[in-house]
């Protein structure tokens, strides 16, 4: 989740003059109007000193190159696990403002709160399908979702809490591995989930703080339909994204590829892999 620094696929690095060369090229291009610079040092940052240091670096560059606009991106993290704490907007803004002013930037500064606004606004509901207890090893709890609706744990080891909506304040002595329904060993939602001892098949489970990088990263992996998105306010709910259907999964399939003999068309439909090239004599 680190996007800043010299060894990154993103942007133009300050080291070695790459960013300065990009500014000169953009400023001299008849096809572009150079307004300002933008930086984003990383995501899920819980230390405002790191965000302030990144803001100061790009502010210094923006001032030296006489830019009109400065955006220091986002990156402010949120608390995903019990015991975590995240800086407030006020603390973040104060540190960034001081950093850019001390770096010589006197104009306005734009930021992108992103995750810190959306994440805590959402949670994901699953239904328990299986409970597998392996004596002396662990308990597995399988649900009707998984890495197709929350890729973050499998992609880079992100951690979440989980609770039962029917008893949100109940004690959670049970330790179990919360897993999805995909045929992948890495399809783990919460590795060591703390749950009430009476969790049962058909229970609803909730993983909070999934409002950012949840549905936005969802996929149809293993041809699993994506879930619905529901907005809730003051006890009233409304669907804003409907649940996908089998028809949605099949809507891009072509029944009979144009210009191919029947046998070749069947080979295309039944072939494996990202694409199949079929030749005809």
Automatic annotation (TrEMBL):
Entry annotated with the keyword Thylakoid: no
Orn/DAP/Arg decarboxylase 2 N-terminal domain boundaries: 2-119
Orn/DAP/Arg decarboxylase 2 C-terminal domain ranges (all copies): 120-211
Cofactor(s) listed in the protein's UniProt record: pyridoxal 5'-phosphate
Protein's UniProt keywords contain Amino-acid biosynthesis: yes
Gene3D superfamilies: Alanine racemase (3.20.20.10), Lyase, Ornithine Decarboxylase, Chain A, domain 1 (2.40.37.10)
Keywords carried by this UniProt record: Amino-acid biosynthesis, Decarboxylase, Lyase, Lysine biosynthesis, Pyridoxal phosphate
Similarity annotation: Belongs to the Orn/Lys/Arg decarboxylase class-II family.
Cross-referenced PANTHER family: DIAMINOPIMELATE DECARBOXYLASE, GROUP IV DECARBOXYLASE
Record-given protein name: Diaminopimelate decarboxylase family protein
Source organism per UniProt: Streptomyces sanglieri
């Amino acid at each position: 989740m680190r996007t800043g620094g010299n060894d990154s696929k993103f942007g133009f690095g300050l080291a070695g003059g790459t960013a300065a060369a990009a500014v000169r090229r953009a400023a001299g291009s008849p096809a572009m109007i150079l307004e300002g610079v933008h930086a984003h040092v990383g995501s899920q940052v819980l230390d405002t000193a790191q965000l302030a240091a990144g803001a100061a670096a790009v502010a210094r560059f923006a001032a030296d190159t006489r830019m009109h606009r400065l955006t220091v991106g986002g990156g402010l993290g949120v608390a995903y696990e019990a015991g975590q704490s995240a800086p407030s907007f006020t603390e973040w803004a104060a540190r960034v403002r001081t950093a850019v002013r001390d770096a010589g930037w006197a104009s306005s500064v734009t930021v992108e709160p992103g995750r810190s606004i959306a994440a805590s606004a959402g949670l994901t509901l699953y239904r328990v399908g299986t409970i597998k207890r392996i004596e002396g090893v662990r308990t597995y709890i399988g649900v009707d979702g998984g890495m197709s609706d929350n890729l973050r744990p499998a992609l880079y080891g992100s951690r979440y809490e989980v609770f039962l909506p029917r008893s949100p304040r109940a004690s959670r002595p049970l330790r179990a591995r919360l897993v999805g329904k995909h045929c992948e060993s890495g399809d783990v939602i919460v590795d060591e989930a703390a749950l009430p001892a009476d969790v049962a098949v058909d229970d609803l489970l909730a993983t909070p703080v999934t409002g950012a990088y949840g549905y936005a990263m969802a996929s149809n992996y293993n041809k699993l339909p994506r879930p619905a998105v529901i907005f809730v306010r003051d006890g009233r709910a409304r669907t804003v994204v409907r649940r996908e259907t089998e028809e949605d999964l099949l809507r891009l399939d072509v029944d009979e590829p144009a210009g191919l003999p029947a046998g070749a068309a069947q080979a295309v439909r039944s072939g494996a892999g990202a694409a199949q090239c079929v030749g005809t004599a």
